[in-house]
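Lab notebook, bench 4. Still working through the backlog of constructs that have no structural model yet. Next entry is a single chain of 175 residues. Request: give me the structure tokens for it.
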Amino acid sequence: MDQPEQQTDDQPRGGDGRWVRTVEVTRRDAAAAEMRSRRPVAATYKEIAETLGYADKGEAWRGVQRAMRDIVREPAERLIQVEAAEIDALYVEALEILERNHITVSNGRIITMRDPDTGKDVPLPDDGPKLAALQTALKLRESYRRLFGLDAATKTEVSGGLTYEIVGVDMEALK
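Model written out:
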């Protein structure tokens, strides 16, 4: 994230110690983008800097860039929320399938088994739908984690040594 220009000690900082964009800076960036987008004659970055109080035209340009990122971020965040709601709804459906009792059916007939306790024929349970629902639920949770970037990057450590051997050279002759 770009830092606001002309930082002072009274500007807020985030938990990581970095400068945080204030509402005023965000509004000024939006005004800069508005000035830059006017047609048929767009304001120059120098004019934007002078009008809105940026330190120079480079800071005005950075303000416009921040405003453009903000414009893209809002619809993207809405899309993420919609996707998350859809994943949540599918997850609830998978959980409902997990809670149901499923029976084995073959050629339109219920397959039964003899209950060892009662000696009566009872429908044979079918675990296939539950297993499929479990796999689906796991995939949905994985999609959810990816959507929100919850999985931490993995570090790979490579260790070992490297040995060189010079073959066919008389070391004494090199001295």
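Notes after review: The beta strands are 105-106, 109-110, 112-114, 121-123. The CA atoms of residues 11 and 17 lie 11 Å apart. Flag for follow-up if needed.
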